[in-house]
Amino acid sequence: MAKKLVIKVTAGADAPERCSQAFTVAAVAAASGVDVSLWLTGESAWFALPGRAEEFELPHAAPLPDLIASIMASGRITLCTQCAARRDITEKDVIEGVRIAGAQVFVQEALGEDTQALVY
C-alpha cells in the first residue's frame, strides 16, 4: 500500500458524484493513516473558499465540510495556482490551512517514493 496518496480533483458542483468520490477517498485514506495530499483544480477550486463546501449537496453522500475537516486533520489540501488565478482567488481568500501551489509541487508530490496518484 502507498504511504502517500496524492489526489487531484477537477470536478466540482458540475460533476457532483465525481467530486464527492475524490473527497471521500481522500478522507477515508487520511482516517486510515495514509499521508494524503488533495489538490483542488478546475471547478473544485471553489471549495477552497469559506462557505462553498456547505453549498454542495449530493444525496447519500457525506457532507463536504465534514470530509474537508477530516482531510485537513491529518493531510493537506492544495489549490492549483493557475486555477486560483483564473478565479481571482488569493491566499487571503482561502480556508485556513489550504495552500496555493503549482504544477511543479504537484509533480514532486506525485512522483515521490511510495506514492500513489489519482485523478478525479
UniProtKB/TrEMBL annotation:
Name the domain of life this protein comes from.
Bacteria
Q: Which Pfam families would you find in this protein's record?
A: DsrE (PF02635)
Xref: Gene3D superfamilies: DsrEFH-like
This protein is called Sulfur reduction protein DsrE
Q: Which organism is it from?
A: Streptomyces echinoruber
Q: What is the lineage of its organism?
A: Bacteria, Bacillati, Actinomycetota, Actinomycetes, Kitasatosporales
